[in-house]
Amino acid sequence: MARRRPSARGSGLASRLLAAIVVVLLTAVATAALVAAAVGPGVFHDHMVAAGAADTDAAVLHAERAFRDAGAVVLALALGAAAVASSVVSVVLTRRIARSLRAVAAAAGGVGAGRYEARVPRTGLGEEFDALAASFNTMAARLQDAERLRGRLLADVAHELRTPVATLAGYLEAVEDGVRPLDPATVAVLRDQATRLTRLAQDLAAVTRAEAGDLVLDLEPVDAGELCRTACAAAQERAEAAGVRLRTEVLADGALIRVDRTSLAQVLDNLVDNALRHTPRGGVVVVATTRDPDGNVRLSVADTGEGIGPEHLPHVFERFYRADSARDRAHGGSGIGLAISRALVEAHGGAITAESDGRGSGATFVVVLPGA
């Protein structure tokens, strides 16, 4: 259904605002005329009497009549000129306000229709209008980013599902046609692909719950060094299989953080697993804890692996983001582990960042949490 445009005959804000200004102007004119008519002659008469003129003197009566006539003419001309000038200024002002609001309405309509690139120009009508335009533009930019991420998310989910589903369908069809026996090797392949799908579904559910704030955290004081040692112990077998040396550096013994032990263990496991997957044989992964002067505790996972290009650093915590899609999929990651880690850390009131000097220089992921 076509949208109705505001009528130019008086239903718009500009017409109503102009009508309100006219009412105020007429009220001011009437008030000024009444006050001048009531006060002016009396004041003039008192001055004439004070000058020694008699109340009944014909010259005095003529002067008072002349004063009233001249005052009425001058007041009428002055008020008329003021009304014309005020009307012109009011028309210009209301048109500017209406034009600015129409720009906001048009941009809002565009955003409502899915055109998130719509923006409102600065109006120059004051801080309030400029703040409104800036807030709207910020909202539109975030919606545009969210739409872009949503589209990429759907594409990446479809891509992640395509390979295991195609593998399952191909093997099942081969088994049904008798081309391939249902031997332990075939069952292992089917189980591996089913596990991959299950892990993807679980990771998506976990990051969605974390970002929506639906997590129930069992907060307790935990030794940060103990968390790091436990994370290294859990990943030691994977590190040995990958030929990577994994070690712990606890530089803040007894540093306590108030966290959910299970959630933070998942964060560290994700970061260590990510480091192991991107560190070649013979490399080193270091899990360390330090304490900042302001009392915050830092948990870091540093590797001597492939590193991250500066253009990719701002995006590494986004779902399914990969600096090198082919390489990362070959490493077996779902592309959601870092997104889950960020959501869990932020749920604890902390922050997580990625640092790297570029390709071939390794990477460091730092989690900063308030000390207990």
Helix vs. strand class:
alpha+beta
Q: What's the N-to-C terminus distance?
A: 59 Å
Helix content: 55-70%
Number of helices: 8
| Low-pLDDT ranges | 1-10, 325-330
In the sheet with the most strands, the strands line up as 2-4-5-7-6
The count of DSSP E runs of length 2 or more, i.e. the number of strands, is 7
Share of β-strand residues: 5-15%
Main sheet: strands, sense, barrel: 5 strands, mixed
Give an overview of the whole structure.
It is a single chain. With 372 residues, this protein is of the alpha+beta class. The protein is built from eight helices and seven strands. The chain has helices spanning 13-50, 58-112, 127-176, 184-212, 224-242, 261-277, 325-331, 337-347; strands at residues 219-223, 245-250, 256-260, 284-291, 297-303, 351-355, 363-369. The strands form two sheets. A five-stranded mixed β-sheet has the order 2-4-5-7-6. A two-stranded antiparallel ribbon has the order 1-3. A hairpin with a 5-residue loop joins β4 and β5 (297-303). It is elongated, with a radius of gyration of 38 Å.
